[in-house]
């Protein structure tokens, strides 16, 4: 017999499948048993003319299908995680490569034109100082 805990967690799905398989069982019938698996087995026996073994087998097969679906979803999630991880690794590798290329270009430029590079850096320093000074004086 399928345990109460296994099927009661997904009671709405159970109700839908029971109604689909056994059309003679109504919503009122199912609402009266309020998720009790023993009563559900009895209801299937009474209303659908099934044996206890048949009712239990039907409920067990629903549990097996739910387990299979869960395994499928888990596997797909793991595949998506692996793909995302690979894409992230590739992106980090490309960003690292581009940063290295940018550093090398800047190093070569400074080596070729040291005076211009020093003047540019000094000018940027002066502009940054002016911007900070203006910003601080406007807060007073």
In short:
With 140 residues, the chain is mainly α. The protein is built from six helices and no strands.
Question: How would you describe this protein?
Answer:
The protein is mainly alpha-helical and 140 residues long. The protein has a domain at 4-80: Protein Yjbj, Chain: A. Helix content is 86%, strand content 0%. It is built from 6 helices and no strands.
Q: Report the CATH topology name of the domain at 4-80.
A: Protein Yjbj, Chain: A
List low-pLDDT spans. none
**What is the rounded Rg?**
35 Å
Beta strands, count: 0
CATH class value of the domain at 4-80:
Mainly Alpha
- Counting H and I runs of at least 4 residues, what is the number of helices? 6
Order of H and E elements: HHHHHH
Note the beta-strand portion. Answer: under 5%
**Overall CATH architecture of the domain at 4-80:** Orthogonal Bundle
Helix content: over 70%
The CATH homology group name of the domain at 4-80: YjbJ
Which sheet architecture does the biggest sheet show? none
The N- and C-terminal alpha carbons lie at a distance of 78 Å
């Amino acid at each position: 017999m399928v345990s109460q805990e296994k099927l009661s967690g997904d009671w709405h799905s159970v109700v839908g499948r029971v109604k689909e398989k056994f059309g003679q069982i109504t919503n009122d019938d199912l609402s009266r048993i309020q998720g009790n698996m023993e009563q559900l087995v009895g209801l299937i026996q009474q209303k659908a003319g099934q044996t206890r073994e048949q009712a239990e087998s039907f409920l067990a097969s629903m549990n097996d299908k739910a387990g299979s679906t869960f395994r499928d979803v888990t596997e797909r999630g793991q595949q998506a995680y692996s793909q995302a991880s690979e894409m992230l690794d590739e992106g980090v590798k490309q960003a690292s490569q581009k940063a290295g290329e940018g550093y090398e270009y800047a190093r070569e430029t400074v080596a070729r034109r040291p005076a211009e590079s020093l003047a540019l850096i000094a000018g940027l320093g002066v502009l940054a100082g002016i911007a900070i000074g203006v910003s601080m004086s406007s807060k007073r």
